[in-house]
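Supplementary Text 2. Reproducibility record for the structural model of the 310-residue chain.

All settings were left at their defaults, and a single model was retained for analysis rather than an ensemble. We include the record here because the model underlies the residue-level annotations in Supplementary Table 4.
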Amino acid sequence: MNGWTAHDIPDQSGRTAVVTGANSGIGYVTARELARRGARVVLACRDETRGRAAEELLRTQVPGAEVELARLDLADLSSVRTFATELKADRIDLLVNNAGVMALPQLRTVDGFEMQLGTNHLGHFALTGLLMPRIREAGDGARVISVSSGLHYLGTVDPRDLNMEHRYRRWIAYGRSKSANLLFIHELARRLAADGSPVVAAAAHPGYAATNLQTAGARMEERPVAERLAELANRLVAQSAEDGALPTLYAATAPDVRQDDFFGPRVQLWRGAPQRSVRAAWTRDDRASAGLWRVSERLTGVTYAWPPRV
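Retained model, structure tokens:
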């Protein structure tokens, strides 16, 4: 794992990958590098204009890439269902749940969920469940990867106030949504193992990577000073999106990845080559992960097609 780079990604020929939020940042880099290694890549993007620009750029950077664009709005469960229904792939070897929002003002999804939990967790929970039959069809080598954050330490999921209706704090909401990502992967890994499936569920985080995630909230609220400060920090402190994508790419392709693994940058959870990362104890709590799973099924209306033997 020492010094691992995108050049170490194994051949992905014959594999189909779906990457959410693939129009920019680490999502775009992840999609591009998988395509560079021969995968057929579906760019699942909310904004079709930005998605089309990303597709054109990727085809320029990787001549001959097998890539297609599909619209997916994770903050709208009807969009998630439409995406899953219209996706033409008979099997999916890799699903990278990358898209996300961070530290937004208090907003709701189309379905009434707190925006960060709804987008970062519930939308991906529904998407994974709807695609799971095709992921299981891929068999050995298939993976589900969720992108969490080192900031999951800011808070665990509170089942008594899942949508933070009593007191909304944007960074706590973000931390909870990222803890939810890890609880989801923990429970999915447990259920896959209990079912005897060869599909692997793992997670990653990019450290502090320079993407538009940091500026989106300030831009949405028209706070230009905060936006400029975030841009300055991206230039001076953050590592590049290229390096930030490495933990995701490692989790998605490296041969030694195990169920419920979590990868991040080696230097203070911030930058550097990928390695197994520390995580909060609550993200490995079986009772909490099972409880979140049940609530997620109820809220999304998506029940996974295979019964767990637990």
